[in-house]
User: Fold this.
Amino acid sequence: MLTEFGKIFIFILVAILFVLIAFVMAKLVRPSRPTYEKSTIYECGEEPIGSPWVQFNIRFYVVALIFLIFDVEIVLLFPWALSYQDYGFYGFAVGIIFLVVLGIGMAYEWRKGDLEWARPKIQVPVLNNLIKRSEVKSES
Assistant:
């Protein structure tokens, strides 16, 4: 007599065998006609130019993470909006606090400039320019 774990183990084994048999059968049945065109890199229908190891601007990742964070938080507002009346003033207060924290986070990101796509370049002062300016002032 099998226990419940034994039944699960047999189910997992059957699933693994099913996948392995499917891969082996696909390998045996499919045609194998490799060509140069099939082995080239495909990038959205465009010919790739340059090295694939290009460093992307970090702004892409920052914008994606900000979107993900705020998107998940907005999704959490739907259940609250549907059920906050069941919890009375406490449920309403918790939701408002959540919205305030969300607003503060959005204001912080906006103030920091991470929501601006084209940020102005920061010009760092170079020591050589400062020395030249002080020499010109002292000579005159």
About this structure: Residues 56-117 form one domain. The chain has five helices and no strands.
